Amino acid sequence: MTPWDRNRGQREHWTAVARQEIDWDSLPSAADLFGELHLAEQAPAPRAPDAPRDSILPGLTICAIAAGAAAWLAEHYHFPIILLGLLIGLSMSFVAREPRSHRGLDFASRTCLRLGVVLLGFQVTFGQIGSLGPEPFAGLVGVMALTFFAGVIAARLAGQSSYTGILAGGATAICGASAAMALYGIIGRERLPQTQFAITLVGVSLASAVAMSLYPILAGYLQLSHQQAGFLIGASIHDVAQAIGGGYAFSEPAGSYATIVKLSRVALLAPVVVITGLAIGEPDSGARRTLWRRLALPWFITAFFAVVLVNSLVPVPPVLGSNALALSKGLLLIAVIATAMRSRLDLLMQTGLRPAIPVLAATVVSFIASLGVALLLL
Prior knowledge:
Structural class: mainly alpha
InterPro entries: UPF0324_pro
Helix content: over 70%
Number of domains: 1
Number of helices: 19
Family: Belongs to the UPF0324 family.
Keywords: Cell membrane, Membrane, Transmembrane, Transmembrane helix
Radius of gyration: 30 Å
Strand content: under 5%
Low-confidence stretches: 29-40, 47-52
Number of strands: 0
Pfam families: Cons_hypoth698
Membrane topology: Multi-pass membrane protein
Order of helices and strands: HHHHHHHHHHHHHHHHHHH
């Protein structure tokens, strides 16, 4: 056997071995020099332009179910419904781990909030504000200003950001959770984490619930008149329903006057939100905007003004007003629950209760200032 024949036999042997060990069908095409065909086969197929996006229904449905549970518990156990919604939302924060729920939660926390604020306009007329009188109205504005800046200063002293103080002071000065939600829409998640926002909402709801039970007793102990007690309760209790309930717990005349005072505070929601937005700017402050764009109102505040104007000029049937109030409460409750679900409980444990300090300070200042105005002007 010649050397050529031996080498040929070895070559045939190793070729057969290679054919057995290598699965050529699983490899890229021999003509695919740079691997384009192989990469194209392995890459995921692109989504068609008309493919449906994630629906808002999963997240929105979960929020609606949680809101129904909160409403049932609040009705049967006489507990503040907003606070119950917050607690239920925080306990269900695991829902936000599912990406399919994000669009629904975002829709609930933004769109439902804004629609709820708009519907609040059916509860206010300019005639109600005018019936308060110039001196009590000026005193009310002074109380709100002191309360607002008390929250800002307390936040600074507690080592919190000024945005936390703006949120706490504004919510305490105006109308509780609904004002907090409106102001948070101006501040934005980029500047204030949702965890701190949730703590502020808890503090505002608890303070309002305690005040509704305590302030009528204190007004009776201080021997205030019906008008003085109505002003004190209407100017210092945060939530609308609890302020009105606290006024009627003292007396019927006090309840009527507390309603006018409280609704006057609600009417001032739009100016406060506008002034706050102009003062702090937008989160992307680096972008230059024209003057008229910076002065433009958020659409839901403009709609709130329009509804108040219509409600002042055109008699609205009581049924429509009561249904609008119920729908507004439901939308705000859904927004609160969605915001709580998007909050991270691990950050909640890290921050502790420090974000609630501005709420406490603003509540105390609100009570003292309201009492002073009631004793001096009424």
